[in-house]
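User: Okay, second chain of the day. Same drill as before: sequence in, C-alpha cells out.
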Amino acid sequence: MDDVESSLPERWAEMLPDLLEDLGRAAAKPLVKKIAARKPELFFGFRPTPEALLSPAVRPRFLKAAEESPDMAQELLAAWRERRQGLLEEIAALPEGEKDALPELAARFGSRPVRLALCLNGKEAPVPAPEEPDIPQAAGISPAGSPPEGESERREREALRERADRLKAEQKAREKAESEARAAEAKIAEMRRLTLAAHEEKERLQKQADRLQRQVERGQSARDALEEEVRDLAKSLHSLQKSYEEALGARPDAERVLLNALRSLLESGEAGAVASFCRTLKRQNALGESAREYYIAALESLSETGEAVSEQLERAQQALDAGMPSQALRLACEAWDRHPRHPKIEAFLEDLLAARRSDAAFLHRVEGWLTRWPLSPAARARARAAARPPGEAPRHQGRPFGPEKAFLWGGRRYRASALEIVRAVDRNDEALVEAVRADLRAKRRDSPAWVRQFFQTVGGLDDSCKVVLGAPELTPVVMDGSNAAWHGKRPGDAPDLDHILLLRETLRRKGCFPVVVYIDAALVFQSSLPDTVRRWVQEEQIVMADAGIDADEMIVREAARRGCPIATNDRLREWDPDNRLLKWRFQLYGEEVLIETESQPF
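Assistant: Same drill. C-alpha cells below.
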C-alpha cells in the first residue's frame, strides 16, 4: 500500500475529477471546507465547493499544494476509500491476472469506481462495460444498426481526436488561469506595497504637520510676546514724551534730563525705543543737536545705515548753511569714517570741495582741527583733499608727493597719480595695475623709502588698493553684486550699496584682483541711489547685465573663463547644476565681513 501511495502524485491530476465525482457532493463538501480552512489561498476568488476545486484556476493550486503537503491528498483518498470499502475489498481479493469478474463488478459498482480501485491497487486491467444480451444473427450479416468495421475505427479515431482537442483546450484554459492567478497575486503584492508606502507617507506627513503646528504655536507665542513688548515700549515712549513735555516747561534742565534718559535707554539696549522717540521729536521740530547724536547712534545700532548717514549729512548741511564749513567737513568725515566710500557721503564731500575751492584760508583752519578730530588716517586724508584750495601744493607731513601728483613710471613715459591708480584698481585695469606692481618691485630694491611713502599715500586713500599693489600674488574673483546688496535684507527693504563696497574691499585685502562685480539691471530701480549705480557702471567699476538677461549667467561664464571662484551666497544651480565652480560664502556683521569657502574659512 505504501508503494501505491507513493505513486499517487504521478496520477493525481487524472484521478482527482473521478475521485470527487464518485465521492459525491454530500461527502466531498465537508472535506473541501476542511481543506479551505487549512489552505485559504487555494480558493482565492472562489467559494470553497467541490465544483470550485475542479475549476481551471483552483485545480492547479490544489495539485501543487498536494505535492508540497500530501496530507490533503491522503484525506481525499481516505474519504473515498471509506465510501468504497466493499469494492476495494473485492478488488483486493481478486487473483492476479483474473479478468472475468471485472464486468460483473462494473455492473454492480460502475466503471469509474472499479477503474479507480484498480489504480489504487496497482492493477492496470481494462474494465469492460456491462455485458448486453446476445442477439441471434445470420451468418455473414451484421446486426441491425451495427456499423461496418472500418466505420467503427473511424468513429473511434474521431472520438480520440475530440478528446485530444478537449484536453488541449483544458490545458490552455489551465495555463491561462495560472497566468491570471500569477498576475492577480503580483497585483495584490503591488497593492500591499503601495498601501504600506501610503501608510508610511501618511505617518511622515502627519509628523511634519505636527512639527509645523508646534512651530506655528511657538511663532504665535513669540508674536504675542513681541506685541506685548511693543505695547509696553509704546507706553514707555508715551510716558517719556509726556514727561519731556511737562519737564520742558517746568524745569530749566529738561534737555539734560532728556539726554540722560536717552543715554540710559541706549546703554540698556533699547535702541528701537530711542529711535522711535527721536522720530516723534523730529516731526515736532523738537529734536535738539545733542539728542540727534543719540538718534544717529540708535540708528546705527539698528543697522539702519541709510537713515543714519542721511541724518549725519543733514547735520553737516545745516552746519554748512550756518557758515561753519569746518564743522560740516568734520561731520561728513565722521560719517565717512563709519561708512567708508558711502555714495551719499562721497557726493557731499565733492559738493563741499567744489564750494570751498576759492577759500584759501579754509585749509589752514582745518589743519589745526584735524589733529583733534578722532578720525582714521583715510578719513584725515579725505578731509585734507576736500579742504585743499586749487593750485596749492598738498601738505602731507614732509611727503614728496600727494594723492593727486602724477609720476613717471619705469621709463615707460606714462603718468599716473595715486588717485588715478586707486581708480584703476576700482575699474579693474589689469594692464596699468600690473605695470605699477612691476615698477614697485623694481623700485623696492633701489628706493625703499620712496616705495614706503607711496604705499602710505595709497593706503591713506584706500588700504585695500595698497594690498593689491604690494601682494606677491593676486587671485581673480567674480563677485555677485546683487546678492551682496540684498544680503540680510527683509521683504520691502531696499538693497544696500555699502555691502558691495565692503565685500569688494575685503576681497582686495585678501589679495584678490581683479574683483569683477556683476549686478542685475533691476538693481538700478530697486536702489535708493540709482544715480550712484549708473555712475559706477559708467566708470566701469561694476558690470550691469542687460535688461532681460540674468546676471548669474554672466557670472558663471566669466568665472569659468578665468577659472576663478565666485563670491556669492547663491548656489547658482540654474547655470552651474554640477557645482563645478568654487563659490565663496560671506557674512556681513556691520562693517565686518567674513569670507569663507565651502570647506574652510578664507
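The two ends are 91 Å apart (CA to CA).

User: Thanks, on to the next one.
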